[in-house]
Q: What sequence folds into this?
């Protein structure tokens, strides 16, 4: 049998065609040759790596970096040709759109821009005009258009109060809360829309279930004037290519001047109010939606800006403001952004290729220049959807002016971090907006799972490590965080503040790990049906708040930033879900005297008289003292009891100062009717003097006298009803 199998094998081999035999005969030496070359190739690569100096590495990096910029041009041009200026047929099945128009002031083109929305070709929409005040110059323009187009669904809103840091969000909140359609469009007053502009946005966002945000890529109407033409060249070239390529590659790059989103999607992120303290709210809309699985994109039509007030100065200020926000949110752009313009990139490419391949620098730079400007010209023609309104010579002139002015604007943005928006000036801290988006980050073995809150001194996250859950505060300013850490350590055994765990650094941020507390008292107030705590609850809250100040002042510390949101409840304990009130957020705290009673200065130089919730004496210019903490607690107690203290703070300066003075001089006459039972406490507050220690025990007695039938020192309990916290 073995011999027969062998003979069969010989017969099978002999039956193989001669061509295949020769092929196999050729393959054997080929693979042998390749195998012998592998060690040589590996050796040559090792030699290359050994001889690779820093200059060669930089040259290779330069070629790759600028090559990527070339690729961005190509992607932007191709994506623009493919994606922009598509025309959709009207679709009556699309949902209704609520269009929010934030407006401040007017110009010659405002009526034209707004008219384009009144006459838009869409089957179901409403216009929600949001003004800062009834005295705005644009109000008569809108009212005249309402009379001209009575069949259009229009509502006018005036800003009621400031809910956060971002003035645009403050302006739009009333409109957002009143919106009745599932799609929300935000459109600035300078935007002109084509008749099918709303339909294009609605069709695009409803094309995919997971599309949550669609923006219109910024461009400009055809307008006369050098500054207007210059602005159009900017938005049609360098700005357009970044937006087109970025959207194709899936980066988050929305724009707030004209966008549409699904209201249900943004509500999952906390609604518009959740972005009240973000300056670049459009960027964070996209970022938060992406974190919940939604995608962003751009529409088929550009946003046509049509401001009548464009000047070279206003343009540079506007672009500089955007640069300042990018630097604050993404500090790494400092290293990249100045190098992505034509001339810096050309110098890098020419020198790199010259070093690697010995090709002359001038020739390389000329080739680079003509490629760059040609691609920008073609991209702008795509944005324009036809011939440009400027000649080729004019285009080159405006293009060169943009390229040469760009580094000047960027350097100015670095040197002057303050941002002017409308009538407001904001001081932007580098990395501040970024520290609000650290969910999912691991720091010191802890995973930051959710953002609890944030303020002027940083953001607080819930952080978990196995079964251990703590609060972690992240801040940009190290000095203020170190002050807070020192205060927490001094109060460790007082049981009136979060327990201190650790302090450290994470990249550009300073961090504190501390005990995780429960609801803050302002959240408790907001969860009540009438935004008012019941009297028995209020009395016990007040008693424990004064107790917190007593422990703080006994350590010769003053808080100086006492408000309802800076008190929180401990985690519930058995029996009966008992909780206690604790004080937090010690970024402004100060050790006001030494052991011998000598007063100590705070080198940080806070200007407390400008804080509208400061006490009467502090607003006059006196330094905060322990009694001023007590007065601020009084304001917090009134707010918890249903008095709208935030609304009172909007009063004219003289009226507010008179109210603060009379509240402690004649509380029986000044307190609102529903809170007059607190008169004994406020009468005692009025007796406090700077040079004398605060008698906290006496203040507690006065709180007890406010409601004698209730034991003010008894425990508080926390329960839930319909998912809302209830403190009793």
A:
């Amino acid at each position: 049998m073995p011999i027969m199998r062998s003979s069969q094998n010989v017969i099978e081999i002999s039956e193989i065609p001669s061509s295949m035999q020769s092929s196999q005969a050729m393959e054997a030496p080929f693979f042998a040759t390749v195998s012998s070359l592998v060690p040589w190739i590996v050796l040559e690569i090792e030699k290359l790596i050994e001889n690779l100096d820093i200059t060669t590495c930089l040259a290779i990096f330069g070629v790759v970096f600028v090559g990527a910029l070339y690729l961005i041009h190509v992607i932007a041009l191709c994506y623009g040709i493919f994606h922009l200026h598509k025309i959709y047929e009207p679709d009556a099945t699309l949902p209704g759109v609520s269009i929010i128009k934030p407006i401040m002031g007017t110009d010659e083109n405002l009526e034209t821009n707004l008219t384009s929305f009144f006459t838009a070709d869409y089957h179901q929409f409403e216009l929600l005009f949001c003004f800062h005040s009834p005295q705005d110059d644009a109000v008569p323009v809108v009212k005249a258009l309402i009379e001209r187009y009575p069949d259009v669904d229009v509502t006018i809103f005036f800003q009621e109060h400031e809910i956060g840091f971002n003035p645009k969000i403050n302006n739009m909140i009333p409109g957002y809360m009143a919106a009745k359609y599932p799609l929300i469009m935000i459109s600035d007053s300078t935007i002109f829309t084509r008749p099918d502009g709303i339909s294009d946005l609605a069709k695009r966002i409803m094309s995919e279930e997971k599309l949550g945000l669609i923006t219109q890529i910024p461009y400009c109407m055809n307008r006369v004037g050098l500054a207007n033409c210059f602005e159009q060249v900017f938005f049609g070239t360098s700005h357009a290519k970044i937006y087109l390529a970025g959207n194709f590659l899936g980066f988050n790059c929305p724009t707030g001047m004209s966008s549409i989103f699904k209201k249900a999607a943004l509500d999952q992120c906390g609604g518009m109010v959740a972005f009240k303290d973000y300056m670049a709210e459009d960027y964070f809309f996209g970022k938060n939606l992406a974190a919940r699985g939604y995608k962003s994109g751009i529409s088929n039509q550009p946003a046509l800006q049509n401001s009548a007030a464009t000047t070279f100065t206003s343009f540079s200020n506007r672009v500089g403001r955007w640069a300042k926000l990018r630097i604050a949110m993404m500090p790494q752009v400092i290293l990249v952004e100045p190098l992505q313009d034509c001339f810096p990139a050309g110098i890098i490419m020419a020198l790199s290729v010259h070093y690697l391949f010995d090709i002359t620098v001038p020739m390389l730079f000329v080739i680079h220049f003509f490629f760059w400007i040609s691609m920008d010209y073609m991209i702008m023609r795509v944005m324009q959807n036809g011939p440009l309104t400027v000649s080729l010579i004019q285009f080159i002139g405006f293009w060169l002016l943009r390229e040469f002015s760009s580094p000047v604007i960027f350097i100015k943005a670095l040197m002057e971090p303050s941002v002017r928006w409308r009538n407001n000036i904001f001081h932007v801290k580098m990395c501040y907006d970024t520290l609000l988006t650290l969910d999912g980050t691991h720091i010191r073995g802890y995973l930051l799972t959710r953002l609890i809150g944030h303020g002027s001194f940083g953001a607080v996250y819930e952080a978990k490590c196995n079964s251990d859950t703590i609060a972690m505060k992240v801040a940009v300013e190290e000095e203020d965080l170190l002050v807070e850490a020192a205060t927490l350590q001094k109060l460790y055994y007082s049981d009136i503040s979060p327990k201190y765990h650790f302090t450290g650094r994470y990249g550009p941020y300073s961090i504190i790990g501390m005990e995780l507390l429960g609801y803050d008292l302002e959240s408790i107030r907001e969860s009540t049906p009438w935004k008012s705590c019941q009297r028995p609850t209020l009395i016990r809250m007040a008693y424990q708040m004064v107790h917190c100040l007593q422990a703080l002042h006994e350590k010769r510390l003053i808080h100086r930033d006492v408000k309802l949101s800076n008190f929180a409840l401990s985690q519930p304990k058995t029996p009966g879900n008992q909780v206690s009130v604790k004080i937090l957020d010690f970024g402004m705290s100060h050790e006001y005297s030494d052991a011998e009673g000598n007063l100590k200065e705070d080198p940080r130089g806070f200007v407390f008289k400008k804080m509208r919730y400061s006490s009467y004496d502090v607003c006059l210019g006196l330094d905060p003292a322990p009694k001023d903490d007590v007065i601020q607690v009084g304001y917090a107690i009134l707010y918890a009891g249903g008095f709208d203290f935030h609304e009172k703070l909007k009063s004219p300066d003289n009226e507010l100062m008179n109210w603060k003075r009379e509240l402690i001089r004649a509380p029986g006459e000044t307190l609102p009717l529903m809170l007059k039972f607190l008169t004994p406490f406020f009468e005692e507050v009025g007796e406090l003097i700077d040079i004398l220690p605060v008698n906290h025990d006496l203040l507690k007695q006065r709180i007890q006298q406010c409601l004698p039938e209730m034991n003010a020192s008894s425990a508080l309990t926390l329960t839930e009803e319909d998912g809302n916290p209830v403190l009793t």
